[in-house]
Design brief:
alpha+beta, six-stranded mixed sheet
Length: about 200
């Protein structure tokens, strides 16, 4: 069971209003507000979508979509870094009672998140820099990045202020077991994940 979410002021939301307008005008784009800046990600390409379809399989096989936890795609995470900040991870493992942690604008308090995963797109530096700080500050216990550009899996744990105390980089050929804190033993095949997300090379 998650602790009660932190109360937030509900004043005017100019950035949120603009972000929502951008989403309405650009279907398929992901719009987030991090550090008081609006970030817009293009619609995913086919391999990105394929990686994201394959990725939940080991989590589901481990029993993480049960009475204790849920495995969800595209759920909003309200960030403590600003009054309107939020991110939308590609994949999350959350407490089953996450609905009790609703904040606003289809976003939930970070206290109910056990793991977030991003699959990189053209703006991969955002996932490997901006979001590292954002998720660490939100105290998300585990952050994983499927780095399609450099063909690596990053696993960050032990959030400490605006960074993670542990940042391990894994190459194809490795099997990576995620921390038990997510609720079950999950082992990821780095080659399998990266192959699913690999764009066509000319």
């Amino acid at each position: 069971m998650s602790p009660a979410p932190v109360e937030r002021p509900h004043d005017d939301r100019p950035l949120t209003a603009e972000a929502n307008r951008l989403m309405d005008r650009n279907p398929g784009y992901r719009v987030e507000i991090i550090g008081g800046q609006i970030l817009v990600s293009p619609p995913p390409d086919g391999p990105h979508a394929e990686a994201l379809t394959s990725l939940p399989v080991p989590f589901l096989a481990a029993g993480l979509h049960t009475s204790e936890t849920r495995v969800l795609q595209g759920i909003g995470l309200w960030l403590p870094s600003g009054t309107e900040d939020y991110a939308i991870p590609d994949l999350s493992v959350v407490d089953a009672d996450y609905r009790d942690s609703y904040v606003e604008n289809n976003c939930y308090d970070p206290i109910c998140f056990r793991l977030v995963v991003e699959v990189t797109s053209t703006n991969y530096q955002s996932d490997l820099r901006t979001k590292v700080s954002a998720y660490a500050e939100a105290m998300v216990p585990v952050y994983a990045v499927i780095d399609r550009k450099y063909q690596r899996l990053h696993v960050l744990t032990a959030p400490d202020k605006a960074t993670y105390a542990s940042h391990r980089v894994h190459a194809p050929g490795e099997l990576v077991t995620l921390p038990d804190s997510i609720g079950a033993k999950v082992t990821l095949d780095v080659t399998e994940i990266l192959t699913a997300g690999q764009p066509k090379r000319d």
